[in-house]
Protein 1
Amino acid sequence: MGTVISTCQTKLPPHLLDTAHAERMTPERLAARIAAGTVVVPQNILRRDTSHITPPAIGEGCRIKVNVNIGTSASRCDPDFEYQKACAALDNGADAIMDLSTAGDLKSIRASVRSLDTTLGTVPIYEAVRRAGNIADLDADLLFSVIREHCKEGVDFLTLHCGVNLEVLESLRSDPRTMGVVSRGGVFHTALMITTGLENPLWSEFDYLLEILAEYEVTLSLGDGMRPGCHDDATRHAKTVEYLNLGRLAGRSLEAGVQRMIEGPGHIPPDQVGYNVSMMKELSRNAPLYLLGPLVTDIGAGYDHVVGAIGAVMACAHGADFLCMVSPSEHLALPDITDIIEGTRVFALAAHIGDLYRNLPDAKEREMEMGLARSTLDWERQFSCALFPEIARSIHSRDDAEDTCSMCGDLCAIKMLQKVL
Amino acid sequence: MGTVISTCQTKLPPHLLDTAHAERMTPERLAARIAAGTVVVPQNILRRDTSHITPPAIGEGCRIKVNVNIGTSASRCDPDFEYQKACAALDNGADAIMDLSTAGDLKSIRASVRSLDTTLGTVPIYEAVRRAGNIADLDADLLFSVIREHCKEGVDFLTLHCGVNLEVLESLRSDPRTMGVVSRGGVFHTALMITTGLENPLWSEFDYLLEILAEYEVTLSLGDGMRPGCHDDATRHAKTVEYLNLGRLAGRSLEAGVQRMIEGPGHIPPDQVGYNVSMMKELSRNAPLYLLGPLVTDIGAGYDHVVGAIGAVMACAHGADFLCMVSPSEHLALPDITDIIEGTRVFALAAHIGDLYRNLPDAKEREMEMGLARSTLDWERQFSCALFPEIARSIHSRDDAEDTCSMCGDLCAIKMLQKVL
């Protein structure tokens, strides 16, 4: 059990050599960071020999990665459409896909996404609740059995809301929030605790959970069940207790040789992003941090991809490692293909800006290259180092402006300066 | 001369009472801040009795404002099109328009934008160079005469690159930059100094310039002629010398009773935004700060509006007051109407997030209101407090999901929690 972490304290397993290379990291350094729990490389052991991708490293010193959620809902259940969304995300810069489907043939939807040969995450409690039919009828056995099934299917990382315990529920009651609980996983566990009066089984039987995950080398994504739903709810007691819980569970996972990352909020006013992110990092001893947004304003509906990208860059400045894309239709509707494309692009942009904070050589060199390409008005070279070459080319070719662009035309500063000097 | 500043040290001129009200500031406080030079309210004295707008306050404790540039170029000269772009900008959240036209009947283009009854800015050196025909033939008299004409036409604020002096040129030579000079105004003045060997007349005859501006109560926007054109050029000597120069000129303007703000870069790596903005604020004794972007990556061509919005929010955290919109077509082509709409929206969003850093009551209350609207699944209330109500409504109405949205359908966390509690 836990072979990734336990065997690699001095030596990197051979299947991660490409990962180290992709991160411009020595195998020894990557091994040490995985062993210290500051980096994870999510890949289910069952996919090791069949997958053709280089599993992505997430965490300290790695390029910031982007996840895109897809998935059916009862209001819009079209598995083909979700498959196309996953393709669109991967084409536009996503490093991983989470399937959050709650309607249709869930197993077959996962198989279809898995066929894309990408890093795949799921949230097993969605399926467990659906099978139970009613939240009150969900028991620990069913939940653990669904978790095991997802592992057996080759899912690479699982979001599990292990930190939503009775203490969190008590904090929610003693320090109420405007929007209560807005994470679906968070609501399921809260409802279960309220209905049964019992502790969250993922908390009380955490060691058993770790055994299952270790068997398949599945990465645990410690879910953000108390994600604030609005600015007024940020940094309240319930979320802070959950930060503490997730920090404790992160330590136990590491001891058990199970790779894990921490999920974080959510809706946070801009001035609170820094200390929320820093707190998560400190409490978990620098576990990799997986953030949804954060959304630094609540009134940007329709442009929440931009709001999320702004928040994501702020979070990256303080240590976020893995960004969960927020689409333009967040809070309003299930995303369509265009939403996925636009959202993924702006998050790929945010991740690159995050990489600049880390002084990653590839990112810095690409910036330098663009400066040189612009200084010589070399348009092909500009397009080739742009994040979105075809979009840049298409806008530039809209007007005919010879060697400059139609913004300034013959009054191009670069051209004029060349003449003077 | 200088009546706005000199007469209002204790009492606010009556024409600015609505401005104080709009900013939820007492007239005394606004008067004190204008007198201290930490706030400007650009309005040409000739427009005071004819304009129907409340002139916008820019600076300490004010709502962050957005400017949108429009203007013809030799490659695309269509004044009607530029007029429509100005309308689109104002419809989507712009507080001011700068006309940067360099082709066509410049005076008539300005008149057409002025007819929109919005705060208007220009860059007189563009017209001066065009009239001179050749940069070497531009003399101080022509430049000052164009400046006076723009004042006489009722322009509210003028960008003038007064800080680009021989010392800046020397710094540019001793500490060269990859892209040299990318501000058109900066290039004109640099070229003029190189050609004539003489000092920039806007620097050497700054007192005369102040006399003209004071006569019309026109606000001076101290131009960013050494704006870095790529990340490698940020925070180099030439720009730092210009920061110092602008700080000195800001002090002289204030003494002369002329309202002024400082323009800032440009292309800056994310980790350098904070100290660049803080430096400008400190060196100018907290003059209002007007920023173009900054662009925190150079490789986002096609999405530079998002890059600029991300940089703008960072800059707001450190004191930026006035944001110059960057459009998706920046670096590639003259913006079209869609570019203006998209760019203005994301900058309006950035400005609102900036307002949250300032703890402005209107901005905070709107966030609170959205939380309440969401917690009760009150969709009409959500739309009405969204920044872009019609866009939010249109996305939400895409699918039928009854009282929730199609993202989660019947598994809406808010709805489920309401049931449990």
Protein 2
Amino acid sequence: MELLEDRILAEGRYLGNGILKVDGFINHQVDPALMNAAGQEFARLFADVGATKILTAEISGIAPAVYTGQHMRLPVVYARKRKPITMPDQVLLTLAPSHTKGRMVELIVSPEYLAGGEQVLIIDDFLASGATIEGLARLAEIAGAKVVGIGVLIEKTFEGGRDALAHLGVPIHSLAAITSFEGGEIHFD
Amino acid sequence: MELLEDRILAEGRYLGNGILKVDGFINHQVDPALMNAAGQEFARLFADVGATKILTAEISGIAPAVYTGQHMRLPVVYARKRKPITMPDQVLLTLAPSHTKGRMVELIVSPEYLAGGEQVLIIDDFLASGATIEGLARLAEIAGAKVVGIGVLIEKTFEGGRDALAHLGVPIHSLAAITSFEGGEIHFD
């Protein structure tokens, strides 16, 4: 999506160690119009996968996921990283390594909102190693649901996430695919 | 907002101790159409306050804040509860007690995205004691910004948040005001 690529080029900053800072429009400050456009694009890309629910992980997946849900007229579930007191004792839980946190984080979904037979479209901000999305796919599997697609705002193709998720056999779309940070610059596919 | 009150009556569940569970459409599963309607309503209510930025706290404030930002054509900043590695060393930080977590949490904003002279509209999911919103207002103040309004999806009027925030001297709007859980039922204003 050109709109997103242009924004990354204009305002993204490469911090080294594979970390791209997009805090000005995705990860801390959010540009709602951009997220709306991204949601619209995901809705177009995944129009035919038969999704019945959007699944994402808190925190930065929420904005793109909610707009995707709006344009597809689907509810959105965000996996929590801590179990809130409103959640039942019996939950769906898995662990996933967090690249930006350098440790394992829990991904928790209440079985109230992810049920057997659901067709799940996973939306997130980044696809790097694929570990978070793999965790979300495991949650869907535990619930007896089926993953039908994966959409991310930004893919770092050189971190291998797409290959790691290939076994799911579902379409994977990224709106901006970064192939390298060679020379400290951002290079797109 | 009747749409929200109806939804709370139909799907909200009172868990005791003043805790209202709305995990089916706000706090874990999100109904994008409802959040869009809420954002539209906030945009109408705060059309004349001169806001230049929306401020919320992760996690559950993000969806209503982003839609409010979209309808007001304003960027949205969500205060983080942990400092991500993409944030500069020097941040704006305050502590606020979390009702649902039973401990103090940090609210962190990068000075890159909350600057002196900004006119801040605070949006959040709940207004209970007002402690989180008070924390967000402190962050705005430290930044040299000015709070110009406060909007929440659900107010629990009996927890005194509106009075606690009165010293800010700004309009406070809630889309659903719960006056009591007497008899385990949800009573609106």
